[in-house]
Specification:
The complex is a heterodimer of chains A (about 250) and B (about 240). Chain A has one domain: NAD(P)-binding Rossmann-like Domain (Rossmann fold, 3-Layer(aba) Sandwich), CATH 3.40.50. Helix content of chain A is about 50%, strand content about 15%. Chain B has about 240 residues and is an alpha/beta fold. In chain B, about 50% of the residues are buried. The chains are: A alpha/beta (about 250), B alpha/beta (about 240). Bound molecules: NADP nicotinamide-adenine-dinucleotide phosphate (NAP). The site of NADP nicotinamide-adenine-dinucleotide phosphate has 29 residues of chain B, from helix 2 and helix 6.
Chain lengths: ~250, ~240
């Protein structure tokens, strides 16, 4: 199995890459963090690039297509910018949309144009549980994660005709640097899922099915509740995250 | 007595983007009749507007360029407005084509127009909206839940829906946030998108009906709202019961 993982130098992306290698697959790893890529070790095909550079995305997609074809593509790279909407500089919010939404759509277009995803393979987008819970205090982030999930849903039927599965992953809080940087201070750490456990669950789901997948029983229950009562979910997120972010500023 | 929301918009300072065509054009016509103080934004030059365009301030701005927020702040100051009661983000584009036929520039252009523009403009105008305890209205689409014919367009409208839900919570009690999801409407958009709805076109709402239903929904302030035939029929029923036409 040959896999492409974006944002592979740290966090969930790194765990996904390691899980691919452990299962005997070969890995193409993209990240903007060159040192992080170098640390992935011998045998990994690495590409350092900044997904915020929209003008370079076509070329980047062609480059990646040339390193394929892939049985698994995981659009995982993502950033966040938290705080009250009007207080977060708009350039940062633009970068969130560019990296989390524009880039995976453009890379997908380039890979499909060049038939770089093999029939029987899987295209995976990492969205976020905030698609269901909402996320006051990260409005542009939730926009990007909602948008990419809708993009994935729109591709499901057309790509099924090419025998490519499309899976959207909606992780809850993971125990990665992302949470360290953006979660409000507090004792939330032990409730976060370990990235390698999430990565294994994601690879297993991607090998079988299309659709939306929430790793972990706890987050899955939250997603179900939030879909039944979205208003309550938003109100709770406002209380446990937005108010604390405000207080921490 | 006509529409019960008549007084709702009278004298109100309202910005409408995408006012040069389709639903936005119908909206500014109706808001003008209802006495709103309007600033209309479109991409085309003023000389390209339909001859019966209402006598309201029109500015040609490309909202996808990214600097529309500061430009609007200047225009607001030039109008002498110290606050903003309402902004309706209608400017939008889409392409009906498989994703493999898109390239980075076309994808980035759709994201910039449909998603980044309303976000950055709202960011720049937040102080004006707060001063007036105003409201911001985003325009999604029935496609916001996914549409295999328009994957990029659907993604930008889904992104707006996620954005609006979070911002509505953040701004609760200060600034109103609403998203409306118009159903298929007879405008230039379908031809521009390269989409031929075929016989389904007969089922489309007229731009006037869609705009009238949207104004009712804006007056009511609930979110999210679908604008389809149900909304138009409800609006007509209420008008009849209220003794209007
Ligand atoms: N028609 C439908 O069936 C339907 C259904 C659901 C949602 N919607 C949404 O409703 C909104 C209005 O669509 P419509 O059907 O009325 O389409 P339309 O007739 O094509 O009007 C689109 C408007 O957006 C403006 N615009 C586009 N790009 C712009 C830019 N970069 N800068 C400034 N203005 C720009 C256009 O200006 P110019 O004409 O001057 O270029 C025009 O005024 C869109 O957001 C669309 O997604 C439409």
């Amino acid at each position: 199995m040959r896999a492409l993982v974006t944002g592979a130098a740290a966090g969930l992306g790194r765990a996904l890459g390691e899980a691919v290698l452990e299962s005997g697959g070969s890995l193409v790893a993209l990240d903007r963090d060159e040192a992080g890529l170098a640390a992935l070790g011998y045998g990994v095909n690495v590409l350092a690039a900044d997904l915020a550079d929209t003008a370079a995305l076509d070329g980047l997609g062609d480059d990646l297509a040339g390193r394929g074809p892939y049985d698994l593509v995981v659009m995982n790279a993502g950033i966040n910018a938290t705080g009250p909407f009007e207080a977060v500089p708009i350039a940062k919010q633009g970068a969130v949309i560019a990296i989390n939404l524009t880039a995976p759509m453009a890379l997908t277009a380039a890979l499909l144009r060049r038939d770089a995803i093999s029939p029987g393979g899987a295209l995976v987008f990492v969205s976020s549980l905030s698609r269901f819970l909402s996320y006051p205090g990260a409005a542009s982030y939730v926009a990007s994660k909602h948008g990419i999930a809708v993009f994935a849903k729109s591709l499901r039927r057309p790509l099924a005709k090419q025998r490519i599965r499309v899976l959207t992953v909606l992780p809850g809080a993971l125990d990665t640097g992302h949470a360290e940087r953006h979660a409000p201070p507090g004792p939330g750490r032990k409730r976060r899922m370990a990235p390698d456990a999430a990565a294994k669950a994601i690879l297993a789901a991607a090998s079988r099915r299309s659709g939306e997948f929430v790793p972990g029983a706890g987050p899955r229950a939250l997603a179900a509740l939030a879909r039944l009562a979205p208003g309550v979910a938003t109100a709770v997120m406002r209380r446990v995250i937005f108010k604390k972010l405000n207080a921490a500023d | 007595m006509t529409a019960p929301n008549r007084d709702k918009f009278s004298q109100k300072r309202v910005i409408v983007t995408g006012a040069s065509s389709g639903i936005g054009l119908a909206l500014v016509r109706q808001l003008d009749t209802q006495g709103a103080d309007l600033m209309a934004i479109g991409r085309r030059a003023a000389s390209e507007l339909p001859p019966d365009f209402p006598q309201i301030g029109y500015q040609s701005l490309d909202v996808s360029a990214g600097d529309t927020g500061p430009q609007l702040v200047e225009l607001i100051a030039a109008r002498g407005w110290d606050g903003l009661d309402l902004i309706i983000h209608i400017a939008g584009i889409g392409h009906c084509r498989p994703v493999a036929d898109e390239d980075a520039a076309s994808i980035a252009g759709t994201v910039a127009t449909n998603c980044l523009a309303p976000i950055t403009i709202t960011h720049a105008l937040a102080p004006h909206l707060a001063r007036a305890s105003g409201a911001v209205v985003f325009v999604g689409s029935a496609a916001h839940k996914g549409a295999s014919g328009f994957p990029v367009y659907a993604a930008t409208k889904g992104a707006l829906a996620g954005f609006a839900r979070a911002l509505r919570s953040e701004w609760r009690g200060r600034i109103g946030v609403q998203i409306l999801h118009p159903g298929p409407t007879q405008t230039a958009m379908h031809d521009r998108a390269g989409h031929d709805p075929g016989r389904l076109r007969a089922l489309f709402l007229s731009a006037d009906d869609a705009a009238a239903a949207m104004l009712r929904q804006i007056a009511a302030g609930r979110s999210p709202q679908k604008t389809g035939h149900g909304a138009v029929l409800r609006m007509r029923a209420v008008r009849m019961l209220a003794g209007g036409r």
